[in-house]
Amino acid sequence: MSVLTRNEAQTRAQLLDVHRYTVGLDLTSGDETFGSRTAIRFTAHAAGDTFVEIKPDTLRSLSLDGRPLDPERLDGNRYPLERLTEGPHELTVDATMRYSRTGEGMHRFTDPADGETYVYTQLFMDDVQRVFAAFDQPDLKSVFDLTVTAPTGWTVLGNGTATQAPEGHWTIAPTPPISTYLVAVAAGPWHSVRTEHRGLPFGIHCRRSLATHLDTDADEILDITRACYDRYHEKFEEPYPFDSYDQAFVPEFNAGAMENPGLVTFRDEFVYRSAVTGTERQTRAMVIAHEMAHMWFGDLVTLAWWDDIWLNESFAEYMGYQTLTEATLPRALNSVRAGETPYPDTWVEFGVSRKGWGYDADQRPTTHPVAPDPDAVPDTASALLNFDGISYAKGASALRQLVAWLGEKDFLAGINTHFARHKFANATLADFIDNLASATDRDVHTWATAWLRTTGIDTLTAHVESTGQSWNLTVDHAGSRPHRITVGAYDHSLDTQTGTEQLVLRDRFALDIPQDATPATQPGNRPDLVVINDEDLTYAKIRLDPRSWDTALTHLSGIPDALTRALLWNAARDMVRDGELHPTVHLTAARTHLPYETDLALVQGVLGFAATQIADRYLPPQDRPTALATLTSLCRDLLRRTEGLTPEDWEQTPGTTDPGSPDPGLRLTAVRHFIDAATQPDTIQDWLREGTAPGGPELDPELRWRILTRLAVLGATDETAIARELDHDPSATGQEGAARCRAALPTPEAKAAAWHAMFTEDTLSNYLFTATAQGFWQPEQAELLHPYTARYYPDAIALAARRGPAIAEAAGRYAFPAHAVDQDSIRLGEQALDNPALTPALRRRLTDQLDDLRRALAVRTR
Question: Taking the CB of residue 553, how many other CB atoms lie within 10 A of it?
């Protein structure tokens, strides 16, 4: 199949205006294929040649202006349209299309819990061609008029309000002009909760087997949706541009969510069937806010070409976190506990999880500017590679720094000018910067060049010295970007009630780097802790002066502001990855401070890094048991801290327990990590047998499968027990749990069967492939798995070529031998990168994975 190049897209955009698509989809043709009829009305500005894209199972017929065309002339995914005359045209295409099991195009899923079937579209980048014929590029916006024929009992959802007619026929209201990749259809026997807000229809939808779980959270989801909607209307002068707002939680979805106008699709793991923490609920709320921001930035105003994908994602990422912080949210996200501030600032979670994603991506050989040069994104295949921590987390961090430098008033004024000038059209980086510049006297163009057109991370290093009655701060700046930062000065203080030593904030002051290159002199004695970038407003590595770092390591849990603690944990994480801090020092700090940490996002983020990076990769195999023992001991302390929960506490929404009561989310986090760190099966076997952890929680399906997976890794369960558990939980999640457990069994037969399922059969859906891959590689099974390291590269390359980008991504992310931290594994991977059959998606993922292996090996060596 041919990928679309930027030059081809520009040529076609100069030739054509596309006015309207009339699309008819027939979903009643069976389990494998569906019918697709398309009429495209367009105008050619001059005589010339072009092409239309489609990836059919069977191309039945085509006609141009009523003249039949030969279906045999289809070349891959392109049908040539030659000798077009200047003026209006209508192209009609009748085809049979194939359903997907990989989350691309029209994905079809049959729920094992009740046998009901659902289909939905994911048309991002170039997958509209899997559903109907199109001039598939973002700057050929058009009106889309869809009708759908669906089985009896199904509900059809689309970008506009859907109206049912007799015999399963549905009509979806025509859209305003939108890009091809934003068209959406979801059909099946959905369970729906509908309401209105400010005269606009709102709906949330999921498959029927999740109905009770959606109903439990419906008020929370709709309250967040309403609050974000209201807050965006306070920020944006352009009103919401579509006729309804539906949110469909769909099965086996590859992304977190997709911003289809009027019909946002989410992975249905966000409909929680097992207990979750308040931080996980906050993440769902952020995704809701993120996708709604796209209605303006991405849908109303759309990029002209994929080099500007950051304009979509960085903006939505920044706006999602900021708006969630500002919006008036339901109590589940705003509760207050004894001794704590209101529900943690969402930027804390961003700092401890998302920002590290950006830092990691920006230090790999595949790094790229937030806004790449157009020549660096020559086609859609290369564009797909830029959906990473740079386009999301680094870009959002850059925008947060821009707001700190520019001021929110001028920032929003520029944004609103951007919307007004380009609504229902396309815009470029140059347009965006020009519109921001129109709202301020500051030199936004120079700022954009420094921040958006460069790669890598600046490093800010503090030097502090005492000068008697004052102290001086000098910040060394390794890098080229300007930074506006806040400096926090902290002193030791004794809590007279508890007798414990804490740190209290003496002062905060602003610095502009490198403008303020001379030492900043402050009155008074030297503080015990000096924190640069204290409010985490910029994107840079932070290095404290030695005395401050010693103070931070010994008093981290005593720092009053969670965002400051997040910044320091991020610095410790960076230092471990850079070989400047021994992994066991980080682990000891976690063991020391997390039992006293009050922000759950910090506990989850730090524990996650300690478990998946330090214990699994950065420490050599002989040190892993000690690391797991440390994590187990830490989890026992967290469990002791959260004793006293009642069954009623577990039934409440996390975040709504009474002030002073133990936090169910913290206990749940401790139970999960205790299970994952178990080196002996006895305790977790007892939990599984009794159906509860001592003191709670009772084991829900997620915890039961988690325990069974760990028992499989330890060789303490078998296929019979897995089958028995699957009988109790035959859901889609249960099927994934069983696949994960079977692949984790430490027997040659189990590993061979899992490998065959992943790399030979080609029948696993995207989710079942991922679950199998997650179970397969285990640090404890290095000797058994050793032969598969060499097999991985040729098998993954062949698989990616057969099954496409989504499975290539899963194979590179989950099926990679990440725990084989040795030179032989790196050598094999480097040889694989020379293979001409390597697809772009897999090449990018392997390049990143191999760089992570080199880093892990370097950390071990140091």
Answer: 18
Coil vs helix vs strand at 717: coil
Task: Give CA–CA dist 79/59, Å, rounded.
Answer: 10
Element (H, E) at 748: helix 748-756
What distance in Å separates the CA atoms of residue 55 and residue 828, rounded to the nearest whole number? 35
Q: How many CB atoms lie within 10 A of CB 96?
A: 17
Q: Are 241 and 261 within 8 A, CB to CB?
A: yes
Among the listed residues 222, 258, 230, the one whose alpha carbon sits nearest the alpha carbon of residue 104? 258
Q: Position of tokens 């770092």? A: 549
Specify the pLDDT at position 332. 46
Q: What is the predicted pLDDT for the residue at 656?
A: 44
pLDDT in tens, 155-165: 999 999 999 99
Question: Mean pLDDT for the chain?
Answer: 95
> Is it the case that residue 660 has pLDDT exceeding 70?
no
The alpha carbons of the chain give a radius of gyration, in whole angstroms, of 27
* pLDDT one-digit tens code per residue, 513-532: 998 878 999 999 999 999 99
Which DSSP helix (H) or strand (E) runs through 313?
Answer: helix 309-326
In angstroms, the CA 410 to CA 402 distance is 10
Give 375's DSSP letter: G
* 167 flagged as catalytic: no
- Predicted confidence (pLDDT) at residue 331 exceeds the cutoff of 80: no
Phi, psi of 221 (to 5 degrees): -65, -45
- Cβ atoms 841, 805 nearer than 8 A: yes
Separation of alpha carbons 68 and 82, rounded Å: 13
Among left, alpha and beta (phi > 0; psi -120 to 50; other), residue 620 is beta
Q: What is the spatial distance between Cα 697 and Cα 703, in angstroms, rounded to a whole number?
A: 9
In angstroms, the CA 842 to CA 809 distance is: 6
At a CB cut-off of 8 Å and minimum separation 6, what does 517 contact? 477
30: left (phi over 0), alpha (psi -120 to 50) or beta: left
DSSP state of 297: B
Longest dimension (CA), the chain: 91
Give me 747's structure tokens: 């027997």
d(CA 858, CA 851): 11
Contacts for 91 with CB less than 8 Å, ≥ 6 apart? 38, 39, 40, 42, 52, 62, 63, 64, 81, 133
Closest CA to 307 of 730, 756, 5, 101: 5
DSSP tag of 45: S
Q: How confident is the model at residue 470 (pLDDT cuts 50, 70, 90)?
A: very high
In this prediction, residues 468-495 reach a mean pLDDT of 94
Q: Quick one: average pLDDT of 711-715?
A: 98
Structure confidence at residue 344 as a pLDDT band (50, 70, 90): low
Edge-to-edge strands of the sheet including 263-267? Answer: 191-197, 200-206, 245-250, 263-267, 257-258
Predicted pLDDT at 645: 74
- Alpha-carbon distance of 279 to 26, in angstroms, equals 41
List phi, psi (to 5°) of 263.
-145, 85
Give me the catalytic one of 104, 259, 280, 291. Answer: 291
Total residues found in the chain within this entry: 862
What does residue 586 show for φ and ψ, rounded to 5 degrees? -60, -45
In the chain, what percentage of residues exceed pLDDT 70? Answer: 96
Distance between CA atoms of residues 524 and 470, nearest Å: 5
Amino acid at 478: A
Spatial neighbors of 561 by CB under 8 A, at least 6 apart, are 488, 505, 534
> Rounded to an integer, what distance in angstroms lies between the CA atom of residue 412 and that of residue 415?
5
Structure tokens at 51: 């092409």
- CA atoms of 469 and 521, how far apart (whole Å): 10
pLDDT band at 340 (very low <50, low <70, confident <90, very high): very low
Contact 329, 289 (CB under 8 A): no
Contact 373, 382 (CB under 8 A): no
What pairing do the DSSP bridges indicate for beta strands 169-172 and 162-165?
antiparallel
The string of DSSP letters for 97-114 reads EE-BSSSSEEEEEE-TTT
